[in-house]
Amino acid sequence: MKKFALFAAASALVLAASGCSAATEAHPEEMHADNGWVRAYEMTAMPGGMTGAFAEITNHTNADVTLVGASSSIANMVEVHEVVSVDGEMKMRPKEGGIVIPAGETVTLEPGGLHIMLMDTTAAILEGDEITLTLDFDGAEDLTVTWPAKSAAAGDEEYQSK
């Protein structure tokens, strides 16, 4: 009986301590992604395609945080990209150094601008699918999100790497 009481007391202390630790180690709402979605279109109707992911990412910390990449089981390669004008033509390319989200601000990832690129998809991405990505931040904890796949309302951008 004494051993059981000692075990119960020790277990309660461990649980209480781990609960407190988890609360102080967790960083709730450091980074938040709202209105996220992945574009579904003819190039995502079969494996091997590529597409973009878009959202509003808010930094709730007191320091700048950089979105340096992402990962997803739906794509063999995931990068942060930007669309820039080169000789009057809009071109997509990897965003050198990542996408900085200033402290206390929101950055919008959108078609024709900053976005997350999913390349060499491992399965079809169809409208209505739920796509899970893990956003990789420098300066904050990674953030796992699940966004719907939907067709773009406008802006039929070309997804070519160069």
UniProtKB/TrEMBL annotation:
| Keywords annotated in UniProt | Signal
The residue range of the signal peptide is: 1-22
Please give the InterPro entries that the UniProt record associates with this protein: LpqE-like, Lxx211020-like, PCuAC_sf
Gene3D superfamilies noted in UniProt: PCu(A)C copper chaperone
Does the UniProt entry include the keyword Cytoplasm?
no
The beginning of the lineage is: Bacteria, Bacillati, Actinomycetota, Actinomycetes, Micrococcales
Q: What protein name is recorded for this chain?
A: Copper chaperone PCu(A)C
Pfam families of this UniProt entry? Answer: PCuAC
